[in-house]
Design a protein that fits this description.
Pathway: Cofactor biosynthesis; pyridoxal 5'-phosphate biosynthesis. Keywords: Glutamine amidotransferase, Hydrolase, Lyase, Pyridoxal phosphate. Catalyzes the hydrolysis of glutamine to glutamate and ammonia as part of the biosynthesis of pyridoxal 5'-phosphate. The resulting ammonia molecule is channeled to the active site of PdxS. Its EC number is 4.3.3.6, 3.5.1.2. The chain has 198 residues and is of the alpha/beta class. 26% of the residues lie in helices and 32% in strands. The protein contains six helices and twelve strands. The strands form three sheets. A seven-stranded mixed β-sheet has the order 2-1-3-4-12-11-10. A three-stranded mixed β-sheet has the order 5-6-9. The protein has a two-stranded antiparallel ribbon with strand order 7-8. A hairpin with a 2-residue loop joins strand 11 and strand 12. The two termini are 14 Å apart. The chain binds glutamine (GLN). The site of glutamine (GLN) has 11 residues, from helix 5.
């Protein structure tokens, strides 16, 4: 297969880092801000940022329903941090009514927003990641954690006992930010998921 075309949702958040990481992992990466751009990619990364702001902008840019439709249709997707929150089927502490983060329902899981943030805003640590050899350095910034996973969801990593990385079929989510370290193993895993190698 040729290099897969992977979009990065570019409404808000750390878009550039994901574009660079995806290219290093062998994908053809581009930004997604319009419906036509969403239709033209094989897969999508939803970056870190602020899930409430991103939800608002998804509506503003008329991307919410097209994105829900593509996810329901099985488009592979990877969400980091705010992206993980949006990919959930249920969000706890989603934010003020009317401005709350919206659950896109791509992964059968309940995510608590800013879960670690109530203890400490940001931290870094080493973790083990299912299917990837060797420790992984993980950066958490006002990160969520996963409080419930459905039967189809595979838990890939934990931090302090809390679930922080999951996969369900061709969707992947991490509470941390692999795009911020030089380690490309998570992005390579996603590229392999998109091409059907993983
Ligand atoms: N706390 C943010 C949110 O609720 C996520 C933080 C991040 O993406 N680094 O969306």
């Amino acid at each position: 297969m040729n290099a897969p075309r992977i979009g990065v949702l570019a409404l808000q958040g750390d878009t550039r880092e994901h574009l660079a990481a995806l290219r290093e992992a062998g994908a053809e990466a581009s930004t997604v801000r319009r419906r036509g751009e969403l239709e033209s990619v094989d897969a999508l990364v939803i970056p870190g940022g602020e899930s409430t702001a991103m939800s608002h902008l998804l509506r503003e840019f008329e991307l919410l329903e097209p994105l829900r439709a593509r996810l329901a249709d099985g488009m592979p997707a990877y969400g980091s941090c705010a992206g993980m929150i949006l990919m959930a089927s249920e969000i706890l502490d989603a934010g003020a009514p009317g401005r709350a983060a919206l659950a896109l329902g791509a992964i059968d899981m309940t995510v608590r927003r800013n879960a670690f943030g109530r203890q400490v805003d940001s931290f870094e640590g080493e973790l083990e990641f299912g299917g990837i050899t060797g420790p992984m350095h993980a950066v958490f910034i006002r990160a969520p954690w996963v409080e419930r996973v459905g039967p189809q969801v595979e838990v890939l990593a934990r931090a302090d006992g809390h679930v922080v990385a999951v996969r369900q079929g061709r969707t992947l989510a991490t509470a941390f930010h692999p795009e911020m370290t030089g380690d490309r193993r998570v992005h390579r895993l996603f590229v392999d998921i998109v091409t059907g190698r993983a």
